[in-house]
Structure formats: C-alpha cells, structure tokens
Amino acid sequence: MRSVAVIGLGYVGLPLALSFAESGLNVSGIDIDPEKIRKLRRGESYIERFGGETLRRLVREGRFQATTDYAVIAGADAVCLCLPTPLDRHRAPDLSFVLNTAEAFLPHLRPGQLISLESTTYPGTTADVLRPLLEKSGLKVGSDLFLGFSPEREDPGNKSFSIKTTPKIIGADDDRSLARMKALYERIIPEIVVVSSSKTAEAVKLTENIFRSVNVALVNELKVVFDRMGIDVWEVIEAAKTKPFGYMPFYPGPGLGGHCIPIDPFYLTWKAREFGISTKFIELAGEINNYMPDYVVEKLSRALDLHAGKGLNGAKILIVGIAYKKNVGDTRESPALAIYDKVANRGADVAYHDPLVPSVPGLRRYPDITGQGSIALTKEVLEGIDAAIICTDHDGVDYELIRRHCPLIVDTRNVFPGSTRSGNIVPA
C-alpha cells in the first residue's frame, strides 16, 4: 500500500492524514471547505494540536496534498471516510454527508481499493447502507473492492493519548477486507484490535460513547440532588475516587458537548426501534444531560435575585468559555451556546470570553449567536457586569481576576473548589 485518500479534514481526518503521511505513504486530504484547503496548502493548520512544522514539512515533501477534487481518489490504494454523522431535528441519524460523498467519488473507484469508514454510526451502516452504494460502481465488495469500519477514537485536547497510542478497532465482513484494514492501520498504530464484523465495530464505538453519556448523566443528577441537600458533589466525587476498585470518577457540568457524546447514543436508540426495543436508559441519560443548561440558568436567576435583588431581564451576563471542552476551540454542541441563548431570551445582555474561540462560527441552531466575538477579560469589564457563568474551564483564563472583580460567579466546572469559595461564588 503506497497511497491513501482521507475525506473530511476535521479533528479526526486531519491527524489521521498526517499520521499516514509521516509513515511514508502519499496522502491526499479531501475536504469541501476551500478555505481549509488553502490553509493546508500553505502549511497552516486550523486545529490547535495538529500541524506546525510537521504539516509544513509533509507539504514541502509532497507527502501530503490537500484538495477539493474527488478525482484524486483514483490514485489511492485506500480511502478513509472521516465525515460528520449528525442527527436530524427528529433525532434520527443523518447519513447525508457519508452518502453524498460516496456518490461523488463513485466514478473514481477502481479495483483493488480499500474503503474504511471511520464516522460514528449505527450497527449495520457499513454492510447494509455503504456497501450497496459502493457496488453501484459495478465493483463487488470482497473481490473487487474491500470495505471495513474502524471507529475514530480522537479526544480533542487530551495530550496523554494520540492516534499512535490509542488501540485501533477494526472490523470487516470478509477476510480479504479485514486483512487490508489491518495492513493499513498497522502502519501507524501499534495495537490493532480485530472484531468479528463491521457491525460489531460500529457497536463498540457506540458503547464507548453511551458509557460516558450515562455516567455523566448520573453525576449530573447527583449534583442536583446533593445541591438541594447542601452537599458538595465535587467533594463527594473526590472522596469516592479514593476507592481503588469498583468506582470510576465522572464529573458534572453544564451539559454535554462535542461531536460524539450528545449525538451518538441516539444512533443506537433509533436503530433499536427496528427491533422493537426501547432504550430507556440511554434516553433518560439524554434527558438529564439536556436539562443541565436549564438548571444552570435557573441557578443564575436565583443567585441574581438573592445577591443583587434583580432578575435576568436587563442583567449583564458574561459567559466564560464558549467551547464545549477545556483547552479546545471547538463549539460543536457546546452547552455554553444553549446557556447563552436561554439567558439572552430572558432579556439579559450577554457577552462571552473564550481565548480559544475568537468568534462564534456559523450555527444553524443559534443564528443570533453566530459571529459574536470574544471580549477581553479586564477589571473594568468584570466590574461592569452583574454575573459571570464559568461554562468551560480553559487553562488560559485569569480566574483570580474574575474572583476579585466580578460581583457574582456561577461556577459549573468547580474552578473554585468548596474550600476556596467566597460569598459571591455559586456552584452549579
């Protein structure tokens, strides 16, 4: 195998493409966003963790080329699909990015190529949806074409793990496809975990994300209960995690964000209906996590009433951290956006500060927030607002400045632990 095409150059596709290029393969990175392509051709990365001198070197050496043209697929021995799989407004899987892309590159397929789907989806997508579409080319999967599923396991912002240090799940539905999947990913990842089918590999990814969703929902519910009892949930978790067996710490927050955890569990919920099964546990976890922005807004409203004798209408509110996760500039499904929207709809004057998100990218759900820019965090700004909500606990924020000059702080991330909280700090 000498060449690979990676379609979709986001948080999953770009690091995968660069890893393949560093292994000695010739890599074509394909994306429909022309601005991304222009930056990559200049050796500039739009993702904090990836790029730098490595990207510039690979571009100079011709190991990595970025393009919007699907025709380059004809020259690739393997094609990796790293495309978004969102939900539609009815919480049903939206496979349009995968299917439309496959239709677009279909004319460029040739015998002997491997197609690897990395996008998170419901069990059966690779075999029952993607395979028939690919075979419209006249090429038969298992003899002319080879097909498998290998779920991405990226964790943006996590410096402890990378593609190379995270075991790679692979699954396929015939031996020849599986052998080619193994040969491809062994070039960049030392530990390959083989499962019995593409359907099983798809289920592995959903299981990982459902596990996190359910456990976060549990601690979020405990947070609400313990708060009413006058118990600090963060103190409880710190003590509980000293148990060396039978317990794994998860932490509460203002809600779930990112491209995986808020979305992926509902792929299984949707598919389970085909088998007459109701996934009550998964759906309850989703309800609890989706409720968290409302809980934060109500905590803010009560705190304003108690501390300042005023309501949200007309209040000046600063949201600290608009990204969905610490030390990452990604706003996808961020609960901070929901909080911003809910507070603004109750008549507040809302602004945000986020050192990693200079302006809010285009948002279908929150068009009124799109284009809003991060404001500077200064003594004057803090003294001029009624309250700040800490939604994302980036390292690069001066929390001591916030503590000294903000009249009221609603802390959803335990930036100020119990022993350090003063009277103007309200945990949420």
Q: Summary?
A:
This protein is of the alpha/beta class. It has helices spanning 13-22, 34-41, 52-61, 96-105, 125-134, 175-185, 198-229, 233-240, 265-273, 280-308, 335-345, 379-383, 399-405, and strands spanning 3-7, 26-30, 64-67, 78-81, 114-117, 146-149, 168-172, 192-194, 316-320, 349-353, 387-390, 409-411, 425-427.
Oligomer: single chain
Strand content: 5-15%
Query: Architecture of the largest domain, according to CATH?
Result: 3-Layer(aba) Sandwich
Report how far the terminal alpha carbons are from each other.
Answer: 53 Å
CATH class of the largest domain: Alpha Beta
- If helices are DSSP runs of H or I spanning 4 or more residues, what is the number of helices? 13
Instruction: Indicate the overall shape.
Output: globular
Task: Report on this structure.
The chain is of the alpha/beta class and 428 residues long. The protein folds into two domains: 3-196, Rossmann fold; 215-427, Rossmann fold, CATH 3.40.50. Helices cover 37% and strands 13% of the residues. The chain is built from 13 helices and 13 strands. The protein has helices at 13-22, 34-41, 52-61, 96-105, 125-134, 175-185, 198-229, 233-240, 265-273, 280-308, 335-345, 379-383, 399-405, and strands spanning 3-7, 26-30, 64-67, 78-81, 114-117, 146-149, 168-172, 192-194, 316-320, 349-353, 387-390, 409-411, 425-427. The strands form two sheets. It has an eight-stranded mixed sheet with strand order 3-2-1-4-5-6-7-8, with helices on both faces. A five-stranded parallel sheet has the order 10-9-11-12-13, covered by helices on one side. Strand 5, helix 5 (125-134) and strand 6 form a beta-alpha-beta unit. The longest helix has 32 residues, at 198-229. It is globular and about 70 Å long. The relative contact order is 0.08. The model has no long low-confidence stretch (mean pLDDT 95).
